[in-house]
Amino acid sequence: MNSKALLRSASRTFALGIERLPRILCDATTIAYLLLRVSDYLEDNEEMNADQKVEYLNLWVNILREEEKIELLTSKLTLASTDSPDAIVAQHSKEIVQHLHSLPYAVQEIIIGHVIKCTQGMARWTKRGPNVHDEKDLDDYMFEVAGRVGYLITQLFAWYSITIRRREQEIMPLAREFGLALQTVNVIRGIRSDYDRGWVYIPQKFIQDMGLTKEQLFDPRHREQALMVLDLMTDKAERHLRQALKYVKSLPWWQHGIRLGCIFPLMFAIRTLTVSRHNAQVFENEAKITRNEVKKIVLDSTLWGWSNLWLEHYYQELSAM
Q1: Which of 17, 62, 218, 255 gives 20 to 30 Å between its CA and that of 166?
Q2: Do residues 156 and 81 share a domain?
Q3: Residue 310 lies in a domain
């Protein structure tokens, strides 16, 4: 299975944006995304205990450093369930790493450096366990798994575009916010599925301030307080999304492919947040937007995403629907 097919099997929605990037950036971002999905698989694998996950994540880091052979990992994954897209990606990690080493050396350095740091962050949090005490803890976790990804893509964009390179240091704080925005919405979208596997990423302080326990958050008898907790999370997501919009608007309008690579996931996140806001169903199953909404966002953004004025208007439109 080639990298494009692996990308589409892992995430059709992220593939929509990545495939709009200029060719070399599309190639590089695809590989970076797949490498991170290997890390995700090792972090989220329900068949391993925490110590095993940490061991495998550290092995993956050493493989990326070329200190260990990839076969040490792939030989352990032959029996992984093919029902999981991440497992399939992990089983093809040798081909992904080979593709990585075909990229320009400067691009390899950017990708490897950030994937290693993300993976080490995942290992630290896996070792620590599912205890997100406050908003600072949540931001720390989200930075490791998403904020660093904002840095990664921005450095790739800067490598490709001299205009972005000149503004790189200026937009880096917004790049972090871009990652945090998408991840906060992802936390909200996956509240139930995370709870079912033993994790609650909503800060305990948010829950306790409403007089609830983690278990009561999912108890229909406590829906009113639970929705107040959800409001705290959606307000937080909104703050990050506003900064993420600034990030996208800071990218050159004539680099339309680069902008679309960021606009698509941003607008999907904005719409997902709108669907999730004060919605009790979030505590029962994953919040999703419809395929028709995805298609409309892709079409509208492709036509008008070069315009910062339109982006501001569309943000408001998706937030109000």
Answers
A1: 17
A2: no
A3: yes
Same domain, 187 and 302: yes
Q: Are residues 292 and 171 in the same domain?
A: yes
Write down the pTM of the prediction: 0.93
Q: How many residues does the chain have?
A: 321
- pLDDT tens digits, 64-123: 999 999 999 988 876 666 677 888 898 899 999 999 999 999 999 999 999 999 999 999
Query: Residue 154 carries which side chain, given as an amino acid letter?
Result: T
As a whole number, the mean pLDDT across the chain is 93
State which residues form the domain around 58: 1-104
Among candidate residues 31, 35, 40, the one with its CA nearest the CA of residue 2: 31
Half-sphere exposure of 102 (CA within 13 A, CB side): 11
Q: What is the pLDDT of residues 269-305, one digit of tens each?
A: 999 999 999 999 999 988 889 999 999 999 999 999 9
CATH number of residue 291's parent domain: 1.10.600.10
